[in-house]
Design brief:
single chain, 352 residues, alpha+beta, Beta-Lactamase, Heat Shock Protein 90, 5-stranded antiparallel sheet, 5-stranded mixed sheet, 10 helices, elongated
Length: 352
């Protein structure tokens, strides 16, 4: 294959592998390296059969052995591909006959992982649910905001007319509670300002948040950093990102039991789809805790407003974080079990 052909095949979502008459790999594209978690140098020259599990049978092996090249193509939908390292992948795959006079590559195997496609579909449904819920919450907040102003004004007028200090305590309670509700409603409405995008460094933002947490709660938990120092600066609203990641980090701190552990981790991934858009470079920012995990009854509604398992929580921190990240073209996902939680933020790398 020419260099240009290689580059084209590397941009596909499908893993492409060419096999010779003995079933040995003679070519693999970049998605194929990702699928098998192995470099092309290591894969080429290996029997394709060795890349799959020898314990659990793989339908694809038998299909390749019995493939009639005169039929030109064979396709299997939603097959389980069991890899030699024990991983199992749900895939569609196709087998094509290659017309090759040199008898080097005679079969092309195209493998299309379905997990990511299912994730994209689920993300779209989740985003729609969040948008409807957020619009509903914002509508309620707007309806409540005006009467609250009236209640506060009436309480202030009443306070001026009262001479009994004991009675003034009641008006002060009213005014204080109205102010508290105003803050809550402002948080429900979320950040309304436009994005002030400037070159920012994600490690500087995370270090700023780390210092804030360690200052507020010194020696109450262990902090670990697992940073990729090669991540370049990118264009984003620094203040809003600080708010988003601080909300996620505070949620992690609140989940800890005794002297827990929090890890900040950053990585770069290639060719990741977020909200139906394929991005060539994406940052992964993980905030990991070893706390008690998220209760199953709220796991699927965690990013909806007013959903929380904390007695003192407002249930607005995570929805606001998701909204900020969404405005930057990204998404937040969560993986949780009884041994801890991972909040994974995926942000397109919009280079500065």
């Amino acid at each position: 294959m020419s260099v240009n052909s290689d580059k084209i095949l590397d941009t596909l979502n499908s893993a492409i592998m060419c096999l010779d008459a003995c079933g040995t790999v003679v070519y693999v594209n970049f998605p194929g390296e990702i699928l098998f978690d192995c470099s092309a140098v290591a894969l080429i020259g290996k029997p394709f059969e060795d890349l799959l599990s020898s314990v659990e049978p793989n339908n694809i092996i038998e299909k390749i052995r019995c493939f009639d090249q005169s039929k030109q193509t064979l396709t299997e939908r939603e097959a389980q591909l069991r890899l030699s390292d024990g991983r199992s992948k749900l895939v569609d795959y196709s087998i094509y006959a290659l017309d090759n006079d040199s008898n080097t590559a005679v079969i092309l195997v195209e493998i299309r992982p379905l997990e990511r496609q299912l994730e994209i579909t689920q993300d779209a449904l989740n985003n729609l649910q969040k948008q409807v819920s957020q619009q509903f919450a914002r509508g309620i907040a707007h309806e409540i905001k005006n009467p609250l102003g009236g209640i506060r004004g009436a309480a202030q007028l009443l306070d001026r007319e009262l001479s009994d200090p004991a009675l003034k305590e009641y008006t002060e309670v009213i005014i204080g509670e109205v102010d508290r509700l105003q803050v809550l409603i402002d948080n429900m409405l979320g950040p309304a300002s436009h994005l002030e995008k400037n070159p920012v460094n994600i490690l500087e933002i995370l270090e700023h948040i780390r210092k804030l947490l360690e200052t507020a709660e010194p020696h109450s938990f262990e902090f670990r950093r697992d940073y990729d120092p090669s991540i370049p600066e990118f264009n984003a609203d620094r203040n809003l990102l600080i708010q988003a990641f601080l909300n996620l980090a505070l949620n992690a701190v609140q989940a800890l039991v005794d002297n827990g552990l929090i890890i900040f981790k950053t990585r770069i991934e290639r060719n990741i789809t977020i909200n139906k858009i394929m991005h060539p470079l994406v940052m992964l920012i993980d905030i990991i805790d070893n706390g008690k995990g998220i209760p199953e009854n709220i796991n699927n509604t965690l990013f909806l407003p007013m959903v929380t398992d904390k007695a003192e929580g407002s249930g607005l921190g995570l929805p606001i974080a998701q909204q900020i990240i969404s405005r930057h073209g990204g998404i937040i996902k969560v993986e949780s079990c009884s041994e801890g939680t991972i909040f994974r933020t995926m942000l397109p790398l919009e280079l500065a």
